[in-house]
Amino acid sequence: MFTIPELNQQLDAEIQHCLNNKTKPLGSLGRLESIALQICRIQQTLKPCLSQPQMLVFAADHGVVAEGISLFPQAVTQQMVLNFIQGGAAINCFCRQHGIEFRVVNAGVNGELPEDSILIDASIAKGTQNFVTQPAMTMEQCEQALTKGAELVDDRHKRGANVIGFGEMGIGNTTSAAALMAAALGLSAAECAGRGTGLEKTAVEHKAKVIQKALKRIKGEKLSPQQMLAELGGFEIVMMCGAMLKAAELKMLVLVDGFIATSAALMASKMHPNFIDYAVFCHKSKEQGHKKMLKAMGVEALLDLDMRLGEGSGVAVAYPLLVSAVTFVNEMASFDSAGVDNA
Ligand SMILES: O=C(O)c1ccc[n+]([C@@H]2O[C@H](COP(=O)([O-])O)[C@@H](O)[C@H]2O)c1
Ligand SMILES: Cc1cc2nc[nH]c2cc1C
Question: Is the ipTM of this complex over 0.95?
Fold first, then answer.
């Protein structure tokens, strides 16, 4: 469905030479240097740029809330989408702060939403089924969500964007993300379930049991990543997965938020291993499974701020670091041009 080529390494030596010859001790800009290298590789240039940065927040509801796995009622998904439209959520503030264009995508919210220029209606259904007893969605719905996500990114790309952040909103979606993580990585439910919006210890244990039941239901079947998404996913997670894959196919820089967005990235990497080369994991969430998921993918997050909000908030606060990475490549003098002695 997607074609994601391995990054071309032909320019690597030249890019590395350019970074090494900036007026600084070798490697002294640390992670900014690896980010700069990644962006130059993706864009195949020594003059990288970030144009028309976008943030897509995918919202959807989850049938598994019937199992009592979230602290908050399902209605909060719809209410927060209205808050996003009005510009009052954390992600709205951070996107305004950094000049990131913001859209919220209705991937499958269980409630009515108004027409608005900030809201993109891509609803597959009004929430998933409870995946403890049946597949969360049909394979057809899963395919639809992947395709719709890809179309949305294609549209952003046509408007001139080469960098795109992914966030989400959906009461119950840490249960779906943890279930996908457990299925895809062969881990136990207890290793993947966390506090979500703030559950206490016994509630987290209950959540792990709920996930364990779902894993038992699908046990023994050798599932493809797409089948796992249909069995355990949420519409926002599947749509994000399709969107992330399309962004990589278009050689855009893919900015991944916290635990739930990373579960979409994990499934994307299972479908297309080269996907990881296009992704920046912007922060490490406080959700306990997140660091294990990042480790399993062999990646490290940029920031560790004890955040666990979602909405793409970790992407937006990390964005200025990406701007710094690109700026030093473009603007910093070299030892030669500045007449500074190198070691
Ligand atoms: O992004 C994260 O790492 C993250 C960690 C914990 C909670 N969240 C947010 O909280 C909501 C899901 O929490 P829950 O407990 O209802 O599964 C959903 O809207 C997410 O955006 C997000
Ligand atoms: C209030 C609230 C805001 C959120 N933003 C993302 N997930 C959320 C969950 C809740 C409960």
Answer: yes
